[in-house]
Amino acid sequence: MTYLAELASPVDLEGWRRWARAFALAGTPGEAIEWRVAGEEAGLFQPEPAPLPGAEAGFSVPRRFLQLAETAICHRDPERFALLYALLQAVLRQRDILAVAIDPLVARVGGMAKAVRRDIHKMHAFVRFRAIEDEGGGQQFIAWFEPEHHIVEAAAPFFQRRFAAMRWSILTPERSVHWDGVELRFADGVPRSAAPSEDALEELWRSYYAAIFNPARLKVQAMRSEMPEKYWKNLPEARLIRPLVENAERRAREMVAAMPALPNPQPQRPAMPSLGASAMAEAQAVTRLEELRTQAAGCRNCPLWAPATQTVFGEGPEHASVVFVGEQPGDSEDLKGRPFVGPAGQLFDRALGEAGLDRQKVYVTNAVKHFKFEPRGKRRIHQKPNTGEIRACRPWLTGELATIRPKLVVALGATAVQSLIGKATSLRSVRGQVLKTDNDAEMMATVHPSYLLRVPDEALRASEYAKFVEDLRLVGEHDPSVRMG
Amino acid sequence: MDVQSKLEILADAAKYDASCASSGTEKRHSAGGKGIGSTEGMGICHSYAPDGRCISLLKILLTNACMFDCRYCINRSSSNVRRARFTVREVVDLTLDFYRRNYIEGLFLSSGIIRSPDYTMEQLVLVARTLRVGHGFRGYIHLKTIPDAAPELVAEAGLHADRLSINIELPTETGLKTLAPEKDVRAIRRTMGDLRVRLEEATEEKRRSVRAPRFAPAGQSTQMIVGADGASDRTILDTSANLYGSYRLKRVYYSAFSPIPEASASLPLAAPPLLREHRLYQADWLLRFYGFTVDEIAPASGMLPLDIDPKLAWALQHRDRFPLDLNRASREELLRVPGLGTRSVERILSARRYRQVRSDDLARLRVPVGKVLPFVVLPDHRPATRLLDGERLVERLRPPARQLELGL
């Protein structure tokens, strides 16, 4: 015996769910059901009208199944209701069957849903409204479109969200939809002649289409696969495709064969001297330190400048009595062009505060003034500068110290020590002593704050941090003028 | 000059910029009845030109007058091209008129440099502000950012635009110095760095408060011209890797240098290297989504092979790593199998938890079966050892040479 299950419309998901639930509960095999949309022509056999589905006794299905069904039911294939019923039975046997993309039934229904999604997407893309004046003198926008599947209901809300303030209609052979500013109204399909046949603006749109095309890069296949020919008849710009393609080769050939153009005897106003930030800085450079900073901005003494964003020069009072020297700028410093502003800089600020020192009163800089790194996906991995790079950058540090003439230089980490005393030295051997730099300033050494960020053991990190603060306190004792207040 | 003539000139002037994306921004709509427009995350290509490029945005210059003399550019100051300039009102009206008819997703506005960087940027921002504030436009806006423009202009550009971009143009500073003498790679990089800082701060602020001012939710992108200077693919990809890592760009676009009317004498007058451009895009994808490094895919010679794609080229050079057991290999390994994309890999990983993947399942996954099979082992398939070792494998997998384009 075959049951007849009648649905109210080609996309009647609610009706399909009612029938499918009843059939599944009764254990009805798929072969015993004939699905039919009301008003559509019946087959040769007249099956039994099915018993009205029973009470709301039921079962649940994964949300993912319902989403799939909602989309796949819009497919033009008359088999869709039966396939969805078969898939429902499969889901009831194995709830997570939809994760098995290689299952033939899952693949088939999935493919249908994909075709429907593509059709909806193309409708969103290729609908072209034409404006007409309505009785009230206002504008009304009407489009004619020929979708492949039953997607008018599914595609309409997009236009409602986008064009809420317009009054518009989309007409198709099977279904039409109207928006009056308040609600979406669906109605039967109409013939093409019901839609306006032109819009004055289309000439402008075609001008744009022709001008944006580059005849030297003809790729007709790429265009066709994304904008299949079946859509062309309703796209106002499509009538240009043939002439543009036909002339492209000649236009491209002519461009290649043309002699290089002579420069315009009356060129556009010649470029004014760049008003970029570095030029401005140059114009304003008055002090020796500013002059150095400007020169350093264009430094090419080693290859580190090329992959970096900018030179990160020191910062602080011209005549600070204490200068802190770090290793090199990090990711944040490179982007912002200022030293000690990243995570290590923040830790440094905190420690300075705890040691009673005032950051505003000290000068901070680095031994190497470009960020050395290795790109790794979306990150940049810090790399230690080598001896050659430290040496190449040394003149800038020496220049800073010679200009500022501080009483005390504090080296943060081994790279700074190496740059200041001219040879690689272990931090441990010099920490806690007062040494002399080349410039005859006194020098102390402690760890680099970024080291404190990397100590994995929490207890050790806390004790190392305390030692660091203690070293900074010694700086304050050595030179009380940099203390707060 | 009428709007139509201006449009012809100023769209023609903008077409060498490859980007037309309208994706990746926040979701918004005008269903409340105010304003017009929406963005739903996924971009929409409203048309395609016969060059295969998507037309998603109204891509135009505000003016093609320019005081820079970049050799590769049709709008350079010494070019004989006709000049035009839109008024703010004209751009706004065109955008809205096209948008209402569903021709476009929004506007991509750029400009020649006139008077000063700040003045130029101000004009671009003025258009965006008029659309957003004056007309409640909720569609997509992409603005070119002028290097070293004043910070408050950049902030306002980010407030109105979905995406900002600055073109790096050429992969090396030498190249830029030669072909675009007025452009300053340091200023370009500083501005990209500044944009990244602003983008990250805005994301951070958004986390704290929904009312935080927005800043270019679709991020920043850039473009490199391929084939105008002597830079190798290796150099180009190194620069891309650097830019992605340094400035978290959403995209690096590659644009094959194309002959232009009014070409300068210092440039190759040849057909654009479209296949090379295509291989660079494939390599770019491998870097970003497939876990490859530049070292692995760009050979010492500096150029990617043109006859086969870069992943296949890598696999053929590492035949000892294949065949892989499709039912056991890790995600990272599967991503390196020629013919398997990120989606198919996810599907395989998900499906094989339930049952073994066999050879006829591959077709259902819609992968290029002939390309995948030599590199994988399945319960019912094992590639002949001599196949993977043989030189003929390259011959078999190389796509048949065909004319790049045929007419209609």
Description:
The complex is a heterodimer of chains A (485) and B (408). Chain A has 485 residues and is α/β, with parallel strands linked by helices. Chain A contains 17 helices and 15 strands. Chain A has a five-stranded mixed beta sheet with strand order 4-5-6-7-8, covered by helices on one side. The radius of gyration of chain A is 38 Å and the shape is elongated. Chain B has 408 residues and is an alpha/beta fold. Chain B folds into two domains: 3-272, TIM Barrel; 274-408, no CATH class. In chain B, 39% of the residues lie in helices and 10% in strands. Chain B has helices at 3-12, 88-100, 117-135, 151-160, 173-179, 185-208, 233-247, 274-289, 294-297, 310-317, 331-334, 342-351, 359-364, 369-372, 385-389, 392-397, and strands at residues 47-48, 54-55, 57-61, 106-110, 140-144, 163-165, 220-226, 251-256, 324-325, 376-377. The radius of gyration of chain B is 24 Å and the shape is globular. The model of chain B has no long low-confidence stretch (mean pLDDT 92). The interface between A and B is large, with 102 and 110 residues.
- Strand adjacency order, main sheet of chain B: 3-4-5-6-7-8
Structural shape of chain B: globular
What general form of chain A does the structure show? elongated
Which CATH architecture of the largest domain in chain A? 3-Layer(aba) Sandwich
What's the CATH topology label of the largest domain in chain B? TIM Barrel
- Low-pLDDT stretches of chain A are none
Question: How far apart, in Å, are the first and last alpha carbons of chain B?
Answer: 35 Å
Radius of gyration of chain A: 38 Å
The CATH C-level name of the largest domain in chain B is: Alpha Beta
CATH topology descriptor of the largest domain in chain A: Uracil-DNA Glycosylase, subunit E
Write out the CATH superfamily name of the largest domain in chain A: Uracil-DNA glycosylase-like domain
Q: How much helical structure, as a percent, in the residues of chain B? A: 25-40%
Q: Whole-number average pLDDT of chain B?
A: 92
Q: Tell me the β content of chain B.
A: 5-15%
Mind describing the biggest β-sheet of chain A? 5 strands, mixed
CATH top level of the largest domain in chain A is Alpha Beta
Query: Which structural class best describes the helix and strand composition of chain A?
Result: alpha/beta
